[in-house]
Structure formats: C-alpha cells, structure tokens
Amino acid sequence: MDLDRGKPVWPQVADELRRRIDAGTYPPGDRFPAVVDLAAEFDVAASTVQKAVATLRAEGKLRTVLGQGSFVADA
C-alpha cells in the first residue's frame, strides 16, 4: 500500500486495516497483528498504528484484552 505522505497517515492506515477486516483477511476472533509488525509493514511509527488501532477499537472492529493483545471483534 502506498501512503500519501502529504495527508495524515493514520487514517490511511486505519482505512487499509478496516478493509482487511471487512474482506476477511483478519477473521473474527483472530488475534490482530502486533502494532510493531504493522508499523514495520506500513513503514510508519508505532504511534501511527496505535492511533489507527484505537479508531478501529472505537468503531467496534477490534477488542483488546489486557496482556493478550487485540482481536478482531465478532461480526
């Protein structure tokens, strides 16, 4: 995915992760990839991915279990 660095990056990352969840790349109930792994994949700071993940959590797409990570919410 090519990010438009002229615009805020975190919404672009959130859009791509949302698309992957909706497409079933990350099925409901599965553990969501780690922030550091996604940051490396998108070549962005971990804080950028954290903001995108927080947005998806607020939308109900992800749920976070303390000490275990984030999981794709059941549809």
TrEMBL record:
Keywords: DNA-binding, Transcription, Transcription regulation. InterPro entries: Bact_HTH_transcr_reg, Tscrpt_reg_HTH_GntR, WH-like_DNA-bd_sf, WH_DNA-bd_sf. It holds the Pfam family GntR. Residues 7-75 form the HTH gntR-type domain. PANTHER family: GNTR-FAMILY TRANSCRIPTIONAL REGULATOR, MANNOSYL-D-GLYCERATE TRANSPORT/METABOLISM SYSTEM REPRESSOR MNGR-RELATED. This is Winged helix-turn-helix domain-containing protein.
